[in-house]
Automatic annotation (TrEMBL):
Classification via Pfam families: tRNA-synt_1b
Protein name: Tryptophan--tRNA ligase, mitochondrial
4Fe-4S recorded as keyword: no
EC number: 6.1.1.2
Keyword line: Aminoacyl-tRNA synthetase, ATP-binding, Ligase, Nucleotide-binding, Protein biosynthesis
């Protein structure tokens, strides 16, 4: 979730500087437990892939043999907003198929549905009992939800009474997701650094209350991941999003080449001669250059130099072809996987068993420390 005020952006930048870690490959050879989750929103768009999934794959592939990598599809978190049960059931399997098709390897990473491991909600309840309400009210995501409700009702006095408790407490569940595995690193975008600090605060509060000598819970470090910001193809002042009712604003990971080409050809650019990378004055053109650079894993400024004497038609053609090259193989694999429900269920079951085995060790010690054993 995001909050668009400049003050909040500055706050996030300060938090990112305070809590970010060195890149994974430059740290010492201590064992790492890397954990992250994603909501079961079904089929993703290009911005989701470049902003999160591609980074997950990179972390997985560059991890050392003794590192523990866990990725979960967070069904409990999805319930904080109204869901159609049948659509949610399909979306969670589509998300699993997407992660597999785009490079998450269940032999190298633990991949599972959050709701298949009850340790998450058990630990969340324990954390609920030691987390002050004031900390949750300071969460910018909660403030943004309140602002949205107030704007929708045009009543500044509207308060928490119109929002469900899950929206208020889900950062505690997020902390339980992470701490159940004693995660040392959590790859996130800058808009999630506040939640990671809350996780650290909860871990510290538990340690001070129940284990002041040994400090049982590890305080996880934020691993700020590269975030290639992909903008809407029709309005580059906004990010690419599935919530926009116009499908031509985004590239879905399952789009065919014909669909990709049509959307890119109709993408907003400008009438300035020549191609340059200038996100402020030429946001549409710069967005296409950013997409092309991401597909090529290249520096956008260097990519732009190739097009300084060319027109938008050439750029759009190259972007379409680069996207097809990026998505063709995974798209085909996704379509194959989503038809193989038996395999998806087997992957999820095996992942959940591995996740439970890891988190049960944590929970046995937690129950002993709080007096429930």
């Amino acid at each position: 979730m995001s909050f668009s005020t400049s003050a909040f952006a500055r706050c996030l930048a300060r938090q990112a500087r305070r809590y970010s870690t060195k890149p994974l490959e430059t740290r010492t050879d201590e064992r790492r437990v890397i954990f992250s989750g994603i909501q079961p929103t079904g089929i993703l768009h290009l911005g989701n892939y470049l902003g999160a999934i591609s980074n997950w794959v990179k972390l997985q592939n560059e991890a050392r043999p003794d590192d523990d990598i866990l990725f979960t599809i967070v069904g409990w978190h999805a319930l904080t907003l109204p869901q159609n049960p049948k659509e949610l059931s399909v979306s969670r399997r589509d998300m699993l198929a997407t992660l597999l098709a785009f490079g998450i390897d269940p032999k190298r990473s633990v991949l599972f549905y959050q709701e298949d491991n009850p340790c998450h909600v058990e630990l969340s309840w324990i954390f609920n009992c030691i987390t002050p309400l004031g900390q949750l009210r300071r969460m910018t995501t909660w403030k943004s939800r309140l602002a949205t409700v107030r704007n929708a009702n045009d009543e500044s006095e509207v308060d928490e009474s119109l929002l469900n408790a899950g929206l208020f407490t889900y950062p505690i569940l997020q902390a339980a997701d992470i701490l159940a595995y004693q995660a040392t690193h959590v790859p996130v975008g800058e808009d999630q650094t506040q939640h990671l600090q809350l996780t650290r605060d909860i871990a510290d509060a538990f340690n001070r209350t129940f284990d002041p000598q040994k400090k049982f819970f590890t305080l996880p470090e934020v691993l700020i991941t590269p975030n290639r910001r992909v903008r809407s193809l029709k309005d580059p002042s906004t990010k690419m999003s599935k919530s926009n009712p116009d499908p031509s604003t985004r590239i879905m990971l399952t789009d065919t080449f014909a669909q990709i080409d049509k959307k890119i050809r109709s993408a907003v650019t400008d009438s300035i001669h020549g191609i340059t990378y200038d996100p402020v004055n030429r946001p549409g053109t710069s967005n296409l250059l950013s997409i092309l650079a991401a597909c090529e894993n290249a520096d956008v400024e260097e990519v732009a130099k190739r097009y300084v004497d060319k027109g938008h038609g050439v750029l759009k053609k190259d972007v379409s072809e680069a996207l097809e090259g990026l998505l063709k193989g995974p798209r085909s694999e996704f379509e194959r996987l989503r038809q193989d429900r038996g395999y998806l269920d087997a992957v999820a079951k095996e992942g959940a068993e591995k996740a439970r085995a890891r988190s049960q060790k944590t929970m046995e010690q937690v129950r002993t420390m709080i007096g429930l054993y």
